[in-house]
Amino acid sequence: MKPHHSSRSSRRQRCCGISLIECLVYIGAMAIVFGMGTAAFYQCMQNSAALRRNTTDISQALVIGELWRADLRSAQQPPRFDANEQTLHIPTTNAEVAYKFSEGQVFRRPTANAAWTAVLPRVQQSTMTAEKHSQFTAWRWELELKTKRQPAIVRPLFTFTAAATQP
Known about the structure:
Blueprint: H1 2-73, E1 80-82, E2 87-91, E3 96-102, E4 105-109, E5 117-120, E6 123-132, E7 137-145, E8 157-163
Antiparallel strand pairs: 1-2, 2-3, 3-4, 4-5, 6-7, 7-8
């Protein structure tokens, strides 16, 4: 009986040793899975923040574009563009509204004496051009927002068109 008992004892010791090694392997595997899950979580959080920033920039661009169009429609005289300062001057009934692109931002000045206000930050490129038609002059504002990802998957481009009323 002794030999049988000793072989059972060695089998039990060997079995316990294997379960301890297996436990360490499982702990290591779980650490890898948790590490990958944490990395995926933080990547998702960064993408969510970028999406939030992009939607804010896009909605701001649309609001400012509509304000620009409303200012052009309320012009009492033909608007003039100063190419040196990248500034569009729009004479209205009460004042002269001006839009300027400088230092990666679009600025708006509601009156000639007022200070410039940054209305659209993070702008890559902005151009305002007049398009002469037979009976009126239309204005086109092409706007590109900055992107963090290089190269950008989708370039945020906007084009606003408005016609100033003829006096």
